[in-house]
Amino acid sequence: MNVWKANGLKYILLFSLILCAVVSVVSLWSYSGSSASQSAAVRQGPSGGFGGGGGPGGGMRGLDSVNSADSKDQGTTGQTTDSSTEGTSTSGDQGTMAGTDTSASDSSGAARDGQHRGPGGMSGNGSGMGGPGGGGRSGNSSSAYATPLAVFAALFFGAFVFITYRFRARDWKLGERNRGLMLWTVLGVGFFLRMTIAPWISGHMDLMLFRNWATTAADSLSGFYTNGSSDYPPFYIYILYVIGQISSTDAFSPYMSVLLRLPNILADIVTAYMLYRLASKRVGYGVSLGLAIFYVFNPAVFINSTFWGQVDSFFTMLIVGMIVLLVENRIGWSAVLFTIAVLMKPQGIIYGPVLFFELLRQRKIQPWLLSVGGAVVTTILVILPFSWGQEPLWLLDLYKGTVGEYPYASVNAYNFFALIGGNYTQDTTTLFLFSYHTWGMICIVLVTLFTWWMYIRSRKPQFAAAAALVLIAGVFTFASSMHERYLFPAAALAVLAYLYLKDRRFLWLAGGFSLTIFLNTFDIFYSSNSQDHYGIILCVTSLLNVLLFGYLVKVVWDCSRPATIQAALPKATNIAPLSAE
């Protein structure tokens, strides 16, 4: 009995961790059963996905109409789907994200996505692209997973509001014993929970594109762009290459959809660990562990990496690392991570001004040399294997094509333009004096100038996280051509801003942005709304994003005063309370 009293918590934590690990292994083992059972799981899977009613090879039907996985889900017309295949599923679900994953691997037949897309949604009702995997809208996804996910999200955000409002730092004090085990139990449970669910979620059609690219890259990494028509930037192709090589073996080929999710599942855990490590230096252990729990089990994070299967978690990990290194004055490595982020996703350029502002603040030549040198060397190393047989400016042409591919005021981003009815409205349409595109550019300039002003006013690198948050929130809310997932890093950045500036209002912003990110992603993933319908979720989420940005501006204005920054700096003997304002 005395042993149990002394070690009861340790035993409970170990049991929880082992239990989750065993459940995860059983789930993966069950998933790797016979080919027939795998195919049945796809066709009848709760998330609809690629196998929902598709005919033979139906899962590949939409592949000819898309070529980029960065939100190539949005607002398609269904012009490339054939309604005659509805309800004719007969064999194997080839080309799906589950089952045997035996679809064709050549992406060369993929046409430019913008040439086939229009504002309407790839209907995919039975054409193999239905459900959440079948384009942004009009897919029929079963509620078998939607309802539990929605209930979990409601419980999570309800608990967040209660805990953030009710508790203070003194209520979060935990004993010295088992601290490490508590942390690894949180991270381990989060990881194993994702691995348990991932095999059974068909995911979004983005997974099909990633899978196709992984196979193409594994066949010929240097010929990836010359042999295919992908417009995805080169960095993540290396990760897809590794996945393609692993999945080419008999042992791992059934787990292709899990392998495609794995880098981003791991990125969720790594990001949570980075937040914990930083928090442990600046706030109490209880708050640090609470922030790790907040990120690991955040529905907005969970739905992106585990359900959708997108790569925003990996991208966010790079941005968080960039900001942390920048604050620690390791500016050369910060520039390297920033460059990798841009070489992974074009929207990485949104965070460039933060690095630029810090370089200007330091007023030294050495940081500039380190940053430029790190960026140039990183770019050369990343693009060199893909450059053989290419035009000298092939990378620039790639980015031009990607940036100009969605000429709409909003691409399923629930922001200001969506709020006033601009979702999938051509960005050349006039809104008052200017077009949506021109208004968007004006807003980008204004947001950047405001952020610069606040950064100069703060006089400290600790303001970098808040600056990055203002940039992504402002650009997402008021710029054109935004996709629903571009706001994803805001949740982690808001936590970072709290840790550096010790203003509790950033925690409310972290919860608020998590809510809008989840609602936006959930609505698009499960296609509960149609492009031509001004739905309640679109209206409420868009309005919330506008209000959250206004609140963020007020908080940043207050925190940019030098005295506030100085008060937030860590002290050896002082732990700032959670309620600090």
Give a verbal description of the structure.
The chain is mostly helical and 581 residues long. It has a domain at 406-581. It is 59% helix and 1% strand. It has a two-stranded parallel sheet. A two-stranded antiparallel sheet has the order 2-3. It is globular and about 60 Å long. The two termini are 45 Å apart.
Nutshell version of this structure?
The chain is an all-alpha fold and about 575 residues long. It is about 60% helix and about 0% strand.
In terms of per-residue confidence, which ranges show pLDDT below 50 for 5 or more consecutive residues? 34-142, 572-581
Secondary structure category = mainly alpha
Q: Average pLDDT, to the nearest integer? A: 79
Strand proportion, as a percent range, falls in under 5%
How many helices?
Answer: 23
Q: What's the shape?
A: globular
Helix content: 55-70%
What string gives the helices and strands in order? Answer: HHHHHHHHHHHHHHHHEHEEHHEHHHH
List its traits:
581 residues; two-stranded parallel ribbon
What order do the helices and strands come in, and which of them pair?
Blueprint lengths: L1 H30 L3 H10 L68 H4 L26 H24 L12 H19 L7 H15 L4 H4 L7 H13 L8 H27 L2 H12 L2 H10 L3 H16 L3 H14 L7 H11 L2 H19 L10 H10 L6 E2 L4 H4 L10 E2 L2 E2 H23 L5 H15 L3 E2 L6 H12 L3 H21 L10 H24 L2 H7 L13
Parallel strand pairs: 1-4
Antiparallel strand pairs: 2-3
